[in-house]
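Figure 2 data, in text form.
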Amino acid sequence: MAGPSRRDLARALEAVADFPDPSPDLEQYLTPAELAAHVCHHAALQGDLERRVIDLGTGTGMLAIAASLAGARRVVGVDVDREALGTARENAERVGSETRIEWVRGDVRRHPVSASGATVVANPPFGAQRGNRHADRPFLETANELGAVSYTIHNGGSQSFVESFASDAGGEVTHAFRAELPIEHRFAFHDAERETLEAEVFRIEWASGDSR
């Protein structure tokens, strides 16, 4: 049975609420509904939602909820922020996902999830504002540990870094596409009322193999 179209998925995800009190230290931004729909619709077409799906740094739950709506039956959302997990739970109820999503509190570096051969999705912090270059590295390290496949969103210009990381871990970037992240003024260091960040999304097949 075919799942929802990308357009219908994006429309449903528009009900996902933003962080009520976003943290600049955690770089808490709402993943755009259209981008989450694109990622998870593509994952469904690749058969990647047949695996357990783990959303690292789930935040508002956008990617976890998108995966559940796109057909995943086993979904886990992990975040270090207890309040964000509360927002994610409320969002899942608001959107009306039929899949039960397990919300787990934990740091991506010391996560409590026991899994292998999963499909990992993540929109990691870019680290651009605080000079923490490659703040996305721990997410890739954990994706390699837990995943057969991952879909991760990165700052524009990250392709060589991501491809090198994947190759060193015995994996391979199989798909890549560009995306835009509209950012509203929310933190003191933002100069403009709205700006658009260039981003890149990568699907990586890891050496850990397949498990469904």
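Caption note: The chain has six helices and seven strands.
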